[in-house]
Amino acid sequence: MYSFVARQAIFDDKLNTVGYELLFRNSMDNRFPDVSAEQATTQLIEEQFLSAPVGRKNDNSTVYVNFPYQLLVEGLAETLPKHRVVIEILETAQPDRQLLETVRRMHTQGFRIALDDFVPGSEWEAFMPYVNVLKFDIRLSTQDAIANYIASNREMLRHVVFLAEKVETYGEFETFKKLGFHLFQGYFFSKPIVTKRNKLVQNRAFTLKLMQEVNVEAPDLNKIEDLLKRDVSLSFKIMRYAQNILYNTRGVSGFRNQSLRDIVVYLGIDEMRRFVLMACLTSFDNVTNTEIYYLSLIRAKFCELVAMRTSSINIANDAFMVGLFSLLDVILGLPLEELMEQIAVSPDVGKALKNNSGELYPYVQLARLYEQRMWEEASDVAHEIGLPGSAVAEMMNQAATWADGLPISVSR
Protein backbone atom coordinates (compact mmCIF):
# COMPACT_ATOMS: atom_id res chain seq x y z
CA MET A 1 0.00 0.00 0.00
CA TYR A 2 1.21 3.48 -0.83
CA SER A 3 0.05 6.95 0.03
CA PHE A 4 0.07 9.54 -2.73
CA VAL A 5 0.34 13.27 -2.39
CA ALA A 6 1.21 15.96 -4.88
CA ARG A 7 3.16 18.86 -3.44
CA GLN A 8 3.24 22.17 -5.28
CA ALA A 9 5.71 24.80 -4.14
CA ILE A 10 4.64 28.34 -3.21
CA PHE A 11 7.11 31.17 -3.79
CA ASP A 12 7.44 34.73 -2.58
CA ASP A 13 8.14 37.71 -4.82
CA LYS A 14 11.89 37.02 -4.64
CA LEU A 15 11.33 33.42 -5.81
CA ASN A 16 12.15 31.92 -2.43
CA THR A 17 10.19 28.78 -1.55
CA VAL A 18 7.97 29.65 1.42
CA GLY A 19 5.58 26.72 1.52
CA TYR A 20 3.73 23.97 -0.30
CA GLU A 21 0.18 23.08 -1.13
CA LEU A 22 -0.59 19.43 -0.39
CA LEU A 23 -2.92 17.81 -2.91
CA PHE A 24 -4.37 14.38 -2.26
CA ARG A 25 -3.86 11.65 -4.85
CA ASN A 26 -4.88 8.01 -4.49
CA SER A 27 -2.98 6.82 -7.57
CA MET A 28 -0.90 8.26 -10.34
CA ASP A 29 -3.67 8.49 -12.92
CA ASN A 30 -6.75 9.11 -10.74
CA ARG A 31 -8.58 12.37 -11.34
CA PHE A 32 -10.97 11.83 -8.46
CA PRO A 33 -13.85 10.26 -10.41
CA ASP A 34 -15.11 8.45 -7.31
CA VAL A 35 -13.47 10.35 -4.47
CA SER A 36 -15.23 13.20 -2.70
CA ALA A 37 -13.45 16.28 -1.40
CA GLU A 38 -14.28 15.10 2.13
CA GLN A 39 -12.67 11.71 1.54
CA ALA A 40 -9.62 13.26 -0.05
CA THR A 41 -8.97 15.72 2.76
CA THR A 42 -9.64 13.18 5.51
CA GLN A 43 -7.27 10.63 4.01
CA LEU A 44 -4.60 13.25 3.31
CA ILE A 45 -4.67 14.35 6.96
CA GLU A 46 -4.48 10.76 8.18
CA GLU A 47 -1.58 9.87 5.89
CA GLN A 48 0.41 13.11 5.96
CA PHE A 49 -0.13 14.37 9.52
CA LEU A 50 -0.98 11.33 11.63
CA SER A 51 0.96 8.48 10.01
CA ALA A 52 4.15 10.28 8.97
CA PRO A 53 5.78 13.69 9.23
CA VAL A 54 4.83 16.24 6.58
CA GLY A 55 7.47 17.15 4.00
CA ARG A 56 11.04 16.12 3.74
CA LYS A 57 13.39 15.56 6.64
CA ASN A 58 13.99 18.62 8.83
CA ASP A 59 11.55 20.61 6.71
CA ASN A 60 9.41 23.06 8.67
CA SER A 61 7.87 24.76 5.66
CA THR A 62 4.30 25.99 5.78
CA VAL A 63 1.82 23.65 4.12
CA TYR A 64 -1.53 24.63 2.61
CA VAL A 65 -4.35 22.09 2.98
CA ASN A 66 -7.69 22.21 1.15
CA PHE A 67 -10.85 21.87 3.25
CA PRO A 68 -14.44 21.46 2.03
CA TYR A 69 -17.30 23.06 3.93
CA GLN A 70 -18.44 20.02 5.93
CA LEU A 71 -15.04 19.12 7.37
CA LEU A 72 -14.46 22.73 8.42
CA VAL A 73 -17.69 23.09 10.34
CA GLU A 74 -17.10 19.65 11.91
CA GLY A 75 -13.79 20.94 13.30
CA LEU A 76 -11.35 18.61 11.53
CA ALA A 77 -9.07 21.47 10.51
CA GLU A 78 -8.62 22.41 14.15
CA THR A 79 -6.80 19.12 14.80
CA LEU A 80 -3.84 20.22 12.68
CA PRO A 81 -0.70 22.01 13.92
CA LYS A 82 -1.58 25.68 13.46
CA HIS A 83 2.09 26.71 13.26
CA ARG A 84 2.53 24.52 10.16
CA VAL A 85 -0.66 24.81 8.17
CA VAL A 86 -2.72 27.33 6.26
CA ILE A 87 -6.32 26.19 6.00
CA GLU A 88 -7.65 26.66 2.46
CA ILE A 89 -11.41 27.02 2.17
CA LEU A 90 -12.43 25.41 -1.10
CA GLU A 91 -14.23 27.59 -3.61
CA THR A 92 -17.23 25.23 -3.45
CA ALA A 93 -17.92 26.11 0.21
CA GLN A 94 -21.02 28.14 1.00
CA PRO A 95 -20.18 31.35 2.91
CA ASP A 96 -23.03 30.96 5.41
CA ARG A 97 -23.30 31.86 9.10
CA GLN A 98 -22.08 28.46 10.34
CA LEU A 99 -18.93 28.64 8.27
CA LEU A 100 -18.36 32.25 9.35
CA GLU A 101 -18.56 31.25 13.02
CA THR A 102 -16.09 28.42 12.38
CA VAL A 103 -13.61 30.71 10.63
CA ARG A 104 -13.94 33.36 13.34
CA ARG A 105 -13.22 30.73 16.03
CA MET A 106 -10.21 29.37 14.16
CA HIS A 107 -8.88 32.88 13.64
CA THR A 108 -9.12 33.46 17.40
CA GLN A 109 -7.21 30.21 17.98
CA GLY A 110 -4.38 31.40 15.75
CA PHE A 111 -5.06 29.46 12.56
CA ARG A 112 -4.25 31.03 9.21
CA ILE A 113 -7.05 31.02 6.66
CA ALA A 114 -6.91 31.20 2.85
CA LEU A 115 -9.74 31.47 0.34
CA ASP A 116 -8.98 29.18 -2.59
CA ASP A 117 -9.75 30.14 -6.21
CA PHE A 118 -11.19 33.44 -5.01
CA VAL A 119 -13.37 35.23 -7.55
CA PRO A 120 -13.83 38.99 -7.01
CA GLY A 121 -17.22 39.68 -5.46
CA SER A 122 -18.97 40.57 -2.21
CA GLU A 123 -20.26 37.22 -0.92
CA TRP A 124 -17.12 36.62 1.18
CA GLU A 125 -16.91 40.18 2.50
CA ALA A 126 -17.91 39.22 6.07
CA PHE A 127 -15.04 36.71 6.18
CA MET A 128 -12.29 39.14 5.21
CA PRO A 129 -11.33 40.25 8.75
CA TYR A 130 -10.36 36.63 9.45
CA VAL A 131 -8.71 35.78 6.13
CA ASN A 132 -4.92 35.83 5.80
CA VAL A 133 -4.45 34.83 2.16
CA LEU A 134 -6.55 35.36 -0.96
CA LYS A 135 -5.68 32.94 -3.74
CA PHE A 136 -6.61 34.26 -7.18
CA ASP A 137 -6.67 31.74 -10.02
CA ILE A 138 -5.42 33.98 -12.82
CA ARG A 139 -7.01 31.63 -15.36
CA LEU A 140 -10.48 32.20 -13.88
CA SER A 141 -10.40 36.00 -13.44
CA THR A 142 -8.93 38.63 -15.72
CA GLN A 143 -6.08 40.84 -14.64
CA ASP A 144 -8.32 43.90 -14.83
CA ALA A 145 -11.02 42.30 -12.66
CA ILE A 146 -8.47 41.34 -10.02
CA ALA A 147 -6.79 44.76 -10.07
CA ASN A 148 -10.13 46.59 -9.82
CA TYR A 149 -11.26 44.44 -6.90
CA ILE A 150 -8.06 45.06 -4.96
CA ALA A 151 -8.13 48.81 -5.67
CA SER A 152 -11.80 49.11 -4.66
CA ASN A 153 -11.35 47.22 -1.39
CA ARG A 154 -7.90 48.32 -0.34
CA GLU A 155 -8.89 49.21 3.22
CA MET A 156 -10.75 45.95 3.82
CA LEU A 157 -7.84 43.95 2.38
CA ARG A 158 -4.99 45.84 4.02
CA HIS A 159 -3.98 42.82 6.15
CA VAL A 160 -4.49 40.20 3.41
CA VAL A 161 -1.67 38.61 1.40
CA PHE A 162 -2.45 38.02 -2.28
CA LEU A 163 -1.42 34.76 -3.92
CA ALA A 164 -1.53 34.24 -7.69
CA GLU A 165 -2.27 30.66 -8.76
CA LYS A 166 -1.47 28.99 -12.11
CA VAL A 167 1.29 31.41 -13.00
CA GLU A 168 2.93 29.85 -16.04
CA THR A 169 5.27 32.52 -17.42
CA TYR A 170 7.81 34.91 -16.03
CA GLY A 171 5.81 37.77 -17.57
CA GLU A 172 2.73 36.79 -15.54
CA PHE A 173 4.86 36.62 -12.42
CA GLU A 174 6.13 40.16 -13.03
CA THR A 175 2.65 41.48 -13.87
CA PHE A 176 1.03 40.27 -10.67
CA LYS A 177 4.04 41.22 -8.61
CA LYS A 178 3.44 44.82 -9.75
CA LEU A 179 -0.20 44.48 -8.66
CA GLY A 180 0.94 43.84 -5.09
CA PHE A 181 1.00 40.05 -5.02
CA HIS A 182 3.56 38.52 -2.69
CA LEU A 183 2.93 34.78 -3.15
CA PHE A 184 2.87 32.69 -6.33
CA GLN A 185 2.08 29.17 -7.49
CA GLY A 186 2.65 27.71 -10.92
CA TYR A 187 5.10 26.02 -13.25
CA PHE A 188 6.90 29.12 -14.42
CA PHE A 189 9.85 28.46 -12.08
CA SER A 190 10.78 25.27 -13.93
CA LYS A 191 10.86 26.88 -17.35
CA PRO A 192 13.93 28.60 -18.80
CA ILE A 193 13.99 32.30 -18.04
CA VAL A 194 16.57 33.93 -20.26
CA THR A 195 16.24 37.69 -20.09
CA LYS A 196 19.86 38.45 -20.93
CA ARG A 197 22.97 36.56 -21.86
CA ASN A 198 25.16 35.68 -18.89
CA LYS A 199 28.91 35.46 -19.24
CA LEU A 200 30.60 32.54 -17.52
CA VAL A 201 32.54 33.80 -14.53
CA GLN A 202 35.44 31.94 -12.98
CA ASN A 203 33.50 29.88 -10.44
CA ARG A 204 31.10 28.60 -13.09
CA ALA A 205 33.91 27.84 -15.50
CA PHE A 206 35.70 25.85 -12.79
CA THR A 207 32.72 23.78 -11.77
CA LEU A 208 31.77 23.07 -15.37
CA LYS A 209 35.37 21.97 -15.99
CA LEU A 210 35.07 19.48 -13.15
CA MET A 211 31.81 18.19 -14.63
CA GLN A 212 33.53 17.80 -17.96
CA GLU A 213 36.54 16.00 -16.53
CA VAL A 214 34.55 13.26 -14.81
CA ASN A 215 32.46 12.59 -17.92
CA VAL A 216 35.15 11.99 -20.52
CA GLU A 217 35.60 8.44 -21.80
CA ALA A 218 38.79 7.86 -19.80
CA PRO A 219 38.78 10.22 -16.78
CA ASP A 220 42.16 11.32 -15.44
CA LEU A 221 42.05 10.80 -11.67
CA ASN A 222 45.01 13.14 -11.18
CA LYS A 223 43.15 15.99 -12.86
CA ILE A 224 40.01 15.27 -10.85
CA GLU A 225 41.98 15.27 -7.61
CA ASP A 226 43.70 18.53 -8.58
CA LEU A 227 40.38 20.22 -9.35
CA LEU A 228 38.85 19.03 -6.07
CA LYS A 229 41.81 20.41 -4.13
CA ARG A 230 41.10 23.88 -5.50
CA ASP A 231 37.76 24.04 -3.70
CA VAL A 232 37.62 23.58 0.08
CA SER A 233 33.86 23.13 0.03
CA LEU A 234 34.00 20.37 -2.57
CA SER A 235 36.82 18.63 -0.71
CA PHE A 236 34.77 18.60 2.47
CA LYS A 237 31.62 17.45 0.69
CA ILE A 238 33.30 14.55 -1.05
CA MET A 239 34.72 13.32 2.24
CA ARG A 240 31.27 13.43 3.79
CA TYR A 241 29.80 11.73 0.75
CA ALA A 242 32.36 8.92 0.75
CA GLN A 243 32.14 8.41 4.50
CA ASN A 244 28.37 8.16 4.32
CA ILE A 245 28.60 5.49 1.61
CA LEU A 246 31.29 3.59 3.50
CA TYR A 247 29.29 3.61 6.72
CA ASN A 248 26.02 2.59 5.05
CA THR A 249 27.47 -0.22 2.93
CA ARG A 250 30.25 -1.62 5.10
CA GLY A 251 29.30 -0.57 8.60
CA VAL A 252 32.63 1.11 9.37
CA SER A 253 33.16 4.57 10.77
CA GLY A 254 34.92 6.18 7.83
CA PHE A 255 38.20 7.28 6.33
CA ARG A 256 41.23 7.92 8.45
CA ASN A 257 44.22 9.76 7.05
CA GLN A 258 43.09 9.16 3.49
CA SER A 259 43.99 11.50 0.65
CA LEU A 260 41.51 12.89 -1.83
CA ARG A 261 43.05 10.55 -4.40
CA ASP A 262 42.27 7.58 -2.14
CA ILE A 263 38.68 8.73 -1.86
CA VAL A 264 38.35 9.19 -5.62
CA VAL A 265 39.71 5.68 -6.21
CA TYR A 266 37.43 4.22 -3.54
CA LEU A 267 34.31 5.79 -4.98
CA GLY A 268 35.00 4.74 -8.54
CA ILE A 269 34.23 6.79 -11.59
CA ASP A 270 30.45 6.24 -11.69
CA GLU A 271 29.99 7.34 -8.09
CA MET A 272 32.42 10.21 -8.66
CA ARG A 273 30.35 11.38 -11.62
CA ARG A 274 27.25 11.35 -9.50
CA PHE A 275 28.88 13.24 -6.64
CA VAL A 276 30.44 15.87 -8.90
CA LEU A 277 27.21 16.54 -10.78
CA MET A 278 25.21 17.00 -7.59
CA ALA A 279 27.84 18.96 -5.71
CA CYS A 280 28.55 21.31 -8.59
CA LEU A 281 24.89 22.03 -9.22
CA THR A 282 24.43 22.97 -5.58
CA SER A 283 27.48 25.24 -5.58
CA PHE A 284 26.17 27.92 -7.93
CA ASP A 285 25.26 30.98 -5.91
CA ASN A 286 22.91 32.84 -8.24
CA VAL A 287 20.04 30.40 -8.63
CA THR A 288 16.62 32.00 -8.23
CA ASN A 289 15.29 29.38 -5.84
CA THR A 290 16.76 26.29 -4.22
CA GLU A 291 13.65 24.20 -4.83
CA ILE A 292 15.08 23.69 -8.32
CA TYR A 293 18.07 21.86 -6.83
CA TYR A 294 15.82 19.46 -4.96
CA LEU A 295 13.67 18.87 -8.03
CA SER A 296 16.80 18.20 -10.14
CA LEU A 297 17.97 15.53 -7.71
CA ILE A 298 14.57 13.84 -7.62
CA ARG A 299 14.39 13.83 -11.41
CA ALA A 300 17.87 12.35 -11.66
CA LYS A 301 17.14 9.44 -9.37
CA PHE A 302 13.70 8.90 -10.89
CA CYS A 303 15.12 8.70 -14.42
CA GLU A 304 17.76 6.25 -13.23
CA LEU A 305 15.15 4.02 -11.58
CA VAL A 306 12.96 4.05 -14.67
CA ALA A 307 15.91 3.15 -16.92
CA MET A 308 16.86 0.24 -14.68
CA ARG A 309 13.28 -1.05 -14.71
CA THR A 310 12.46 -0.64 -18.40
CA SER A 311 15.69 -0.72 -20.34
CA SER A 312 19.18 -1.57 -19.22
CA ILE A 313 21.38 -0.82 -16.26
CA ASN A 314 23.99 0.24 -18.82
CA ILE A 315 22.09 3.44 -19.60
CA ALA A 316 21.12 4.17 -15.98
CA ASN A 317 23.98 6.62 -15.48
CA ASP A 318 23.05 8.56 -18.62
CA ALA A 319 19.42 8.59 -17.47
CA PHE A 320 20.56 10.01 -14.13
CA MET A 321 22.44 12.79 -15.94
CA VAL A 322 19.45 13.65 -18.12
CA GLY A 323 17.28 14.16 -15.04
CA LEU A 324 19.94 16.10 -13.17
CA PHE A 325 20.74 18.40 -16.10
CA SER A 326 17.10 18.94 -17.11
CA LEU A 327 16.94 22.18 -15.11
CA LEU A 328 20.53 23.32 -15.64
CA ASP A 329 19.38 26.13 -17.92
CA VAL A 330 17.22 27.53 -15.13
CA ILE A 331 20.00 27.19 -12.57
CA LEU A 332 22.61 28.94 -14.70
CA GLY A 333 20.39 31.19 -16.81
CA LEU A 334 21.91 29.88 -20.03
CA PRO A 335 20.36 27.88 -22.91
CA LEU A 336 20.82 24.11 -22.67
CA GLU A 337 22.29 24.05 -26.17
CA GLU A 338 25.13 26.30 -25.03
CA LEU A 339 25.69 24.44 -21.77
CA MET A 340 25.86 21.06 -23.49
CA GLU A 341 28.76 22.38 -25.58
CA GLN A 342 30.77 23.11 -22.44
CA ILE A 343 30.52 19.67 -20.84
CA ALA A 344 31.15 16.24 -22.26
CA VAL A 345 27.96 14.20 -22.30
CA SER A 346 26.96 11.20 -24.37
CA PRO A 347 25.07 11.79 -27.63
CA ASP A 348 21.97 10.23 -26.04
CA VAL A 349 22.04 12.69 -23.14
CA GLY A 350 22.52 15.62 -25.49
CA LYS A 351 19.69 14.47 -27.75
CA ALA A 352 17.28 14.14 -24.82
CA LEU A 353 18.11 17.56 -23.40
CA LYS A 354 18.59 19.61 -26.55
CA ASN A 355 16.13 17.98 -28.94
CA ASN A 356 13.55 16.35 -26.64
CA SER A 357 14.09 13.09 -28.47
CA GLY A 358 15.87 9.77 -28.23
CA GLU A 359 15.71 6.80 -25.89
CA LEU A 360 16.31 8.82 -22.72
CA TYR A 361 13.83 11.64 -23.34
CA PRO A 362 10.66 9.76 -22.22
CA TYR A 363 12.18 9.35 -18.74
CA VAL A 364 12.48 13.06 -18.04
CA GLN A 365 9.25 13.72 -19.92
CA LEU A 366 7.48 11.32 -17.56
CA ALA A 367 9.01 13.09 -14.54
CA ARG A 368 7.78 16.48 -15.78
CA LEU A 369 4.26 15.22 -16.45
CA TYR A 370 4.09 13.66 -13.00
CA GLU A 371 5.27 16.89 -11.35
CA GLN A 372 2.57 18.83 -13.19
CA ARG A 373 -0.08 16.27 -12.18
CA MET A 374 -0.92 15.55 -15.82
CA TRP A 375 -1.92 12.01 -14.93
CA GLU A 376 -3.46 10.90 -18.22
CA GLU A 377 -0.50 12.08 -20.28
CA ALA A 378 1.94 10.54 -17.76
CA SER A 379 0.10 7.22 -17.97
CA ASP A 380 0.40 7.29 -21.75
CA VAL A 381 4.18 7.83 -21.61
CA ALA A 382 4.58 5.17 -18.92
CA HIS A 383 2.64 2.70 -21.06
CA GLU A 384 4.76 3.50 -24.12
CA ILE A 385 7.99 2.62 -22.27
CA GLY A 386 6.48 -0.48 -20.65
CA LEU A 387 6.06 0.81 -17.11
CA PRO A 388 2.93 0.19 -14.99
CA GLY A 389 1.28 3.38 -13.76
CA SER A 390 1.54 2.29 -10.13
CA ALA A 391 5.30 1.88 -10.50
CA VAL A 392 5.74 5.52 -11.48
CA ALA A 393 4.38 6.81 -8.18
CA GLU A 394 6.44 4.23 -6.31
CA MET A 395 9.63 5.31 -8.07
CA MET A 396 8.89 8.99 -7.55
CA ASN A 397 8.51 8.33 -3.82
CA GLN A 398 11.79 6.39 -3.82
CA ALA A 399 13.52 9.25 -5.61
CA ALA A 400 12.21 11.84 -3.13
CA THR A 401 13.33 9.68 -0.19
CA TRP A 402 16.76 9.32 -1.76
CA ALA A 403 17.08 13.09 -2.29
CA ASP A 404 16.03 13.72 1.31
CA GLY A 405 18.83 11.54 2.61
CA LEU A 406 21.70 12.95 0.57
CA PRO A 407 24.68 14.09 2.65
CA ILE A 408 25.03 17.04 0.30
CA SER A 409 22.86 19.78 1.76
CA VAL A 410 20.63 21.94 -0.39
CA SER A 411 20.26 25.22 1.49
CA ARG A 412 16.77 26.61 1.77
Keywords:
412 residues, alpha/beta
Q: What does this protein structure show overall?
A:
This protein is of the alpha/beta class and 412 residues long. Helix content is 49%, strand content 11%. The protein is built from 17 helices and 8 strands. Strands 1-2-3-4-5-6-7-8 form an 8-stranded mixed barrel. α6 packs antiparallel against α7 and α10 packs antiparallel against α11. The longest helix is centred in the middle third of the chain and has 22 residues. The radius of gyration is 23 Å and the shape is elongated. The C terminus is likely disordered.
> Gap between N and C termini, in Å?
31 Å
- The main sheet orders its strands as 1-2-3-4-5-6-7-8
How many individual helices? 17
Basic shape: elongated
Question: Strand content of the residues, in percent?
Answer: 5-15%
String of helices and strands: EEHEHEHEEHEHEHHHHHHHHHHHH
Low-confidence stretches: 24-35, 46-58, 190-203, 247-253, 285-289, 407-412
Over the alpha carbons, how many angstroms does the gyration radius reach? 23 Å
What integer is the average pLDDT?
A: 75
| Helical content band | 40-55%
> How many runs of DSSP E, i.e. beta strands?
8
Sheet with the most strands, sense and barrel status: 8 strands, mixed, barrel
Helices and strands: which structural class? alpha/beta
What is the strand and helix layout of this fold?
Blueprint (H helix, E strand, L loop, with lengths): L3 E9 L4 E9 L11 H14 L11 E6 L1 H5 L11 E5 L7 H13 L2 E4 L17 E5 L5 H10 L8 E5 L4 H9 L4 E2 L17 H13 L6 H9 L2 H19 L9 H22 L9 H20 L5 H10 L2 H5 L3 H5 L6 H9 L5 H11 L3 H10 L4 H16 L8
Parallel strand pairs: 2-3, 3-4, 4-5, 5-6, 6-7, 7-8
Antiparallel strand pairs: 1-2, 1-8
